[in-house]
Amino acid sequence: MAERVRLIDVAREAGTSVSTVSRALNGSDLISPEVVAHVRAVAGQLGYRADKRAQEFKLGRPLTVGVTVPDLTNPFFSEVLKGLTGAARSGGYRLLIGESGEDPAEELRLVDELVDYSGALVLFSSRLTRQGLEKAIAQPVPVVSINRNVKNAGVVAIDYRAASRLLLEHLTGLGHRRVLYVGGPATSWSDGERRRTLRRTARSLDVTLDEIDGGWSGNHGYDAGPTVLHSRATAVITFNDLVGIGLLSWLYDNGVEVPAELSVASYDDIPIASYSRPPLTSLRNERAKLGELAWEQLSKRLGGADWPPPDLLTPELVVRASTGQARRRVRIRG
Amino acid sequence: MAERVRLIDVAREAGTSVSTVSRALNGSDLISPEVVAHVRAVAGQLGYRADKRAQEFKLGRPLTVGVTVPDLTNPFFSEVLKGLTGAARSGGYRLLIGESGEDPAEELRLVDELVDYSGALVLFSSRLTRQGLEKAIAQPVPVVSINRNVKNAGVVAIDYRAASRLLLEHLTGLGHRRVLYVGGPATSWSDGERRRTLRRTARSLDVTLDEIDGGWSGNHGYDAGPTVLHSRATAVITFNDLVGIGLLSWLYDNGVEVPAELSVASYDDIPIASYSRPPLTSLRNERAKLGELAWEQLSKRLGGADWPPPDLLTPELVVRASTGQARRRVRIRG
DNA sequence: TCCTAGCATGCAAACGATTGCAACCGATCG
DNA sequence: CGATCGGTTGCAATCGTTTGCATGCTAGGA
């Protein structure tokens, strides 16, 4: 808890002016090498650290990117965040992260707060209403939207069309003709995309697709168990791995064999997915890459360019033991 | 992306001086109510938002708390973060979060960076060496350490003594006399504490305690499988739930019945723990509370007081199906 | 020797907000 | 009727840094 050393202290100690010190430290070229060396030495000795607040204030542009995330607990989000952090840092920016707890109102509040501190905003799987989202986009800073399509903003997303096709083709390959989708939060754009692309692909593959509402957590998956069991589907696709794992747990508790009686597959492939019982077939995507692309879009835009076209990331299906040959008919009990 | 409205713009529009506007907006009492109302109205209409950088710069104190976390992916961390965020926000502070990826060198870098932007630091389960940690504590801002004991800083931690006792008493109650601990990262202070308190309690309960090294992720648990199998223990305690789940997965893959042949229990009780196969017996702690306590310590300190004594949080054992009666002898195979 | 070019340095303004202090107002009191 | 006082308001300094511009110095050419 020592006293703060300021530029003027370094200047005094080095016997020069503050401008000289500033220039020496910032590597200006109109200053003699000896002075630079001397000033640097003195600054180091005094333990000088520029006051970032003053610096950014003077420079006028905030080197901070505000990020909203629905749920930090979900590894999907935190891994994308990892990629984003790294990329932003190498661009000299840092991240201010806010978690909305899957609540649109809270997300709006967050945006409102973050915009005060940030030179750019990244909305991650935004749960905002269309209206709320447009209001957010209208902020006086550039906005990138991850996993949600929107105009006048940068967009980076998973290619759900390809994703859904991979999933369904895998299942039809195993003989499944009737598939149930356990959905995510109603506020989730990507849930809408999953449904839309699943429906479309199901039609083209001549698969019957049923849908029920679910949520985003293990609990939601567990609670969906009874409904799943009573459906006539031979395979289930869940909104994400957490839901899938919850569902597997219910199925196990209730004696339903996976995949003998029912196949389960999911989106995201979070690390824990390979440790569920049985391990979950899921769609892997390069999550860190997603974050990096978001930064790329942002930095182009900050550089003055227009928004590039949306980046779409194609996932890859990781087949594990939770999917298998379709039974002729699902056993109904309870 | 509109133009920024500044204080002076509001002043001009309202026909007063900037000082008046500033005071009106900040609720100073030496200003007439009508002027306040008028200025507020004008400001609202113009969409004025104070430049936080300028504001904080002028005020001199950064309203930011820098936080380092080993791994955002781990729900344990993200939930504590939730509590911390909420508490800090109600105190007018916001969080700058950095993830070290379990790497001490990276953590040191982070601390170095965060301190430039923050009025306080929270080190979460710091993986720093003692020396590194002391260097971090010596920063010109107050530091709170979560889950790691250290002098001249605020400390909030889980009561591992109580935790280890709960675990071992549960196991001895089931007849286990030989327990294996699968450890965490060598850099983790809390791993050290778990070992220390387990040893001590094991001695007092007349339990034989073996230890092996592990890590912090599901992979580490899975990889520990063979060693676990060949040990003579009838029960295993893992560093955390992720390790526990990984281990359960290996045991399943290799036909070891849990808990019939081997019991597994763990620390942390993250949400997914109840969905492992079998559900994991684990130690629940009020994670959000941990974050709130950290903020409480910090705000006291920021208020000028000395550091309060460490806060210790007592966990609660959640017994699930992964622990059961001890077998007379573990089957050895492979 | 003097002038000039060119490099190195310092002075001072600026970023946008807050705040101590002075100035001003009308009203009250002596 | 003038001084005083309480209550409002504006002026100007200030936070720490960057940077345009002026200035001083040195060296080289005429």
TrEMBL record, chains A, B:
CDD domains hit by this protein: HTH_LacI, PBP1_LacI_sugar_binding-like
Domain of life where this protein originates: Bacteria
Gene3D superfamilies, sorted: 3.40.50.2300, lambda repressor-like DNA-binding domains (1.10.260.40)
Entry annotated with the keyword Disulfide bond: no
GO molecular function: DNA binding
Ranges of residues in domain HTH lacI-type: 5-59
Species per Swiss-Prot/TrEMBL record: Kribbella karoonensis
Keyword DNA-binding: yes
SUPFAM superfamilies (UniProt xref): lambda repressor-like DNA-binding domains, Periplasmic binding protein-like I
Protein name (record): LacI family DNA-binding transcriptional regulator
HTH merR-type domain ranges (all copies): 1-27
Record key words, sorted: DNA-binding, Repressor, Transcription, Transcription regulation
UniProt xrefs under InterPro entries: HTH_LacI (IPR000843), LacI/GalR-like_sensor (IPR046335), Lambda_DNA-bd_dom_sf (IPR010982), MerR-type_HTH_dom (IPR000551), Peripla_BP_I (IPR028082)
PANTHER family in the record: HTH-TYPE TRANSCRIPTIONAL REPRESSOR PURR-RELATED, LACI-RELATED TRANSCRIPTIONAL REPRESSOR
Xref: SMART domains: HTH_LACI
Pfam family, one: LacI
